[in-house]
Write a structure and sequence with these properties.
- By secondary structure, the chain is an all-alpha fold.
- It has a domain at about 10-185: Tetratricopeptide repeat domain (Serine Threonine Protein Phosphatase 5, Tetratricopeptide repeat, Alpha Horseshoe), CATH 1.25.40.10.
- The protein has 15 helices and no strands.
- It has helices at about 25-45, 55-60, 65-75, 80-90, 95-110, 115-130, 130-145, 150-165, 170-180, 190-200, 205-215, 225-235, 240-250, 260-270, 275-285.
- Helix 7 runs antiparallel to helix 8 and helix 8 crosses helix 9.
- The protein is globular.
């Protein structure tokens, strides 16, 4: 699975179609589904080690039985020619889950040859039936020119449909487009609103975006403390960018108490994920004289 940057951390997983038992954990479940599906497809069979103890505990925490989860994966990727024909037939009969399943398969090349045009077709079918995840996926495809010419206006249209249905990934994307002026003028106030909705659902990228708006007073009153709070929420979930900025805030004492140890902790986490700016900050820290000055024992 490829992630093209910190702001795109959640964007890759939007093509799923599952009915998520807990919206606030949509991304983690989608990621688990994606990883498990890849393992299943590689082995062409079900096996006990498709998920580990941590995954099992997570599924239990959202009341999703492990066997039911594995049945779901096997149903989608244990494909025979007859099964595929059945799935297409169900899709043509406006079965939203079948439509989204086919779209996901064609987008990722699971069980079939990757085909963005067919993925687009089935996502549109599902989107017209009200599948928010397919609406979000269409936004992603139009935003990135996958199977269609790149079209930010069309991307925004689909993202907004999904966002209004509560899809956190779409809300985050809409916030990102509005904050960066993609497909229109920048509108930080609206970006803040959509980021906030997604961030409250636990969306890592949106939490980072919200923190950045608070930090710079864009679309909201500037507030270092709130910026630090949202950076920390995102940093704890692995955001490289948030780990960097949280470290910087601890170094400066803005929004949080001045704390070199915590600054080093978060900068080290960011640097360990390959962030060059974090490495530079750590190098500067190493060169900083101790409080007693040079020559102090």
């Amino acid at each position: 699975m490829v992630v093209s940057g910190i702001q795109d951390l959640t964007r890759l997983v939007r093509m799923t179609f599952m009915s998520i038992p807990s919206p606030s954990r949509e991304e983690k479940l989608t990621h688990l589904f994606h990883v498990t599906a890849e393992k299943y497809w590689d082995r062409k069979k079900r096996s006990p080690d498709l998920i580990d103890a941590e995954d099992t505990a997570f599924l239990a925490s959202i009341d999703y039985p492990v066997e039911e989860f594995l049945d779901f994966v096997e149903n989608i990727f244990g494909l025979s020619e007859d099964h595929m024909k059945w799935k297409v037939k169900r899709g043509e009969m406006k079965d939203m889950n079948a439509q989204s399943s086919l779209a996901y398969m064609y987008f990722n090349g699971f069980g079939v040859e990757r085909d963005y045009a067919k993925a687009l077709y089935w996502h549109k079918m599902a989107a017209q039936e009200g599948a928010a995840s397919s609406q979000c996926a269409l936004g992603y495809m139009y935003a990135n020119g996958l199977g269609v010419p790149q079209d930010y206006t069309e991307a925004i249209s689909w993202y907004k449909k999904a966002a209004e249905l509560g899809n956190a990934s779409a809300q985050d994307s809409l916030g990102y487009f509005l904050a960066n002026g993609l497909g229109g003028d920048k509108n930080y106030a609206q970006a803040f609103s959509w980021y906030a909705k997604a961030a409250e659902q636990g969306n890592v990228s949106a939490q980072t975006g919200l923190a950045y708006l608070y930090l710079n007073g864009l679309g909201v009153n500037q507030d270092d403390a709130k910026a630090a709070d949202w950076f920390e929420k995102s940093a704890e979930q692995g955001s490289v960018f948030s780990q960097l900025w949280l470290g910087r805030l601890y170094l400066s004492g803005k929004g949080v108490p001045l704390d070199k140890a915590k600054a080093t902790h978060w900068l080290s986490k960011s640097a360990a994920q390959g962030n060059a700016e974090a490495r530079e900050e750590l190098a500067k820290l190493d060169q900083t004289p101790s409080p007693g000055g040079a020559g102090t024992p």
